[in-house]
Design a protein that fits this description.
With 313 residues, this protein is α/β, with parallel strands linked by helices. Helices cover 41% and strands 12% of the residues. A seven-stranded mixed β-sheet has the order 2-3-7-6-1-5-4, sandwiched between helices. The chain is globular and about 45 Å long. Bound molecules: zinc ion (ZN). Zinc ion binds next to helix 12. The site of zinc ion has 6 residues, from helix 12.
Length: 313
């Protein structure tokens, strides 16, 4: 039997490497023991220099994409998820939701449809509300980058039914938002959300979870909220750690652009974003320099193995 790596990809919206000032950088305030146990430090200068130890690697990635102005979500997420420099293509950073051109890129070259087409099993763990799904299917609401990819790869989404089966989580890591929207699901702790992500990852080659409350807290310049959200993320990572064998699972935590790491400004930042990798294959990602590099590296890792396995069989 060949070695079969699995990838868990945790996307944290708006998380850059910030200033060394706890007045404005919630990463220096939040209690993040899981992250600390991997990376060893939250010192921004250490992060900018890159960290590598026997547990984890942290590599700073450029999110400006060589284009003036502040990095934005539509171009940043397309670049991250499809490995295409979308800002260069449009000659600007595009905020909000991907336009038709970016949607086409995500639907063809996005990491989820690319892996599914190549015969890998992939999962997007985020649960969608039943009220929203028809609006996405009929394109009556703008589609996020992950929504475009999920439609292209699976034709739909995980829902509160998957949440009740323990096979999906709402983006808030607790399901509280789903309950507020009238869906009958249990409230969970962020740590359990991590365990659910790990459980889904155990039966898929590639598992994606998207967290975006960090970006909202950054726009609202709310230190207390930002700190709580980062602590929730750390608890979720703790849940993943408790349930995953890092000898065969690569955990990736990264972002599309800076925002929450500098609450002195309400907009995004041009700061690099951290690429944190945990697991045996982590060093393969050490040479990456841009958010456009992440998806090609994931696809190469999973498809090279797939070819190796087929050969051995
Ligand atoms: Zn934003």
């Amino acid at each position: 039997m060949g070695y079969a790596p699995r990838v868990i990809f945790i996307f944290i919206d708006g998380l850059g490497i910030g200033p060394a000032d706890p007045e404005v950088n919630p990463l220096l305030v939040a209690r993040m023991p899981t992250l600390a146990s991997w990376v060893g430090t939250t010192d921004p200068d250490a992060w900018l220099a890159g960290v590598s130890n026997e547990r984890a690697s942290l590599t700073p990635l450029d999110a400006t994409l060589g284009v003036d102005g502040l990095p934005q979500s539509a171009t940043g997420q397309t670049s991250l998820y499809a490995g295409v420099n979308a800002a260069e293509l449009l000659r600007r950073h595009m905020p909000g939701y991907p336009n038709k051109a970016l949607q086409a890129i995500l639907a063809t070259r996005g990491v989820l449809p690319t892996l599914v087409r190549a015969g890998c099993s992939a999962a997007f763990v985020n649960a969608y509300t039943f009220r929203r799904i028809p609006e996405y299917l009929t394109r009556r609401r703008p589609l996020s980058a992950t929504t475009v990819m999920s439609l292209a790869a699976f034709g739909g989404f995980r829902t509160s039914e998957d949440v009740r089966r323990g096979e999906a989580v709402f983006h808030d890591l607790t399901n509280r938002g789903l309950r507020r929207r009238g869906e009958n699901v249990p409230v969970i702790e962020p740590r359990e959300a991590g365990e659910i992500i790990a459980r889904v990852a155990a039966v898929h080659h590639f598992t994606l979870f998207e967290y975006f409350l960090t970006d909202l807290a950054g726009h609202r310049q709310r230190m207390h909220r930002a700190t709580l959200y980062l602590e929730d993320v750390d608890e979720m990572l703790n849940g993943i750690r408790s349930a995953v064998d890092f000898a065969r699972t690569l955990l990736i935590v990264t972002s599309d652009h800076g925002n929450v790491e500098d609450l002195s400004t309400r907009g995004h930042t041009r700061k690099p974003v951290p690429l944190i990798t945990v697991g045996t294959e982590r060093e393969r990602f050490r040479g990456l320099t841009s958010i456009t590099d992440v998806t090609p590296a994931c696809v190469a890792l999973l498809l090279e193995d797939e070819r190796g396995r087929v050969k051995e069989d």
